[in-house]
């Protein structure tokens, strides 16, 4: 049985599954569905077309499904889709998609959005991502699984942050950050491989060694990108992670962040 505070406002079209909790003065209106076991705090606003999965925790003051901050948005019925076991801390904001993008903003399972973080229209935030306090994604950003974005960092529209990458706090990301790497700075540069993060996620030593070798070839050998990719695939193409890294580099539209020249 769900527990809904008497001051909460729940629209007629809202669908609520079992064991949901909704706190005081929260407002849920529109084509909204809330999965089993999800807990919604006080003064939360969920509006428009929004689907939230099971066992999520949504804290006080969160806004989900508000109109996107885009001058060309014309009221189209876009949506927000949130997976299971997602944690959204105080005053975070998630806006729905636009017709300029994919018409939806997607947050996959096991994501954590810390206080005051922002996910703009048409973003895709993959499984296990952590965004620290006040981290911000511009529109159309994609963040790969288990990536970490530090506090007070901002990712430019259309940029990508690869899987298992780590973006340090106070960073400005205007170019793509490849998978498995570390990046930071006002105009974010790469500082080698995210070794600690990969170890924590259970990557084998031989895989980490291969990723480091690929990183050095790509960013520190002086080779042209095409030549570097050929060498990497010839030497290390047996590893799925290396093929994923190469595909990310090859499909970059904004360009890839440069190496800062430090040691990995």
Automatic annotation (TrEMBL):
InterPro entries: Acetyltransf_C, Acetyltransf_C_sf, Hexapep, Hexapep_transf_CS, Lipid_A_LpxA, Trimer_LpxA-like_sf
KW Transferase (keyword) present: yes
Entry GO MF terms: acyl-[acyl-carrier-protein]-UDP-N-acetylglucosamine O-acyltransferase activity
SUPFAM superfamilies for this protein: Trimeric LpxA-like enzymes (SSF51161)
Domain of life: Bacteria
Enzyme class (EC, first level): transferase
Catalytic reaction(s) noted: a (3R)-hydroxyacyl-[ACP] + UDP-N-acetyl-alpha-D-glucosamine = a UDP-3-O-[(3R)-3-hydroxyacyl]-N-acetyl-alpha-D-glucosamine + holo-[ACP]
Positions of the UDP N-acetylglucosamine O-acyltransferase C-terminal domain: 176-256
GO terms classed as biological process: lipid A biosynthetic process
Coiled coil: none
Pfam families the UniProt entry points to: Acetyltransf_11, Hexapep
Pathway: Glycolipid biosynthesis; lipid IV(A) biosynthesis; lipid IV(A) from (3R)-3-hydroxytetradecanoyl-[acyl-carrier-protein] and UDP-N-acetyl-alpha-D-glucosamine: step 1/6
UniProt family annotation: Belongs to the transferase hexapeptide repeat family. LpxA subfamily.
Subunit structure: Homotrimer.
Function recorded in the entry: Involved in the biosynthesis of lipid A, a phosphorylated glycolipid that anchors the lipopolysaccharide to the outer membrane of the cell.
Name of the protein this chain belongs to: Acyl-[acyl-carrier-protein]--UDP-N-acetylglucosamine O-acyltransferase
Organism: Hydrogenobacter hydrogenophilus
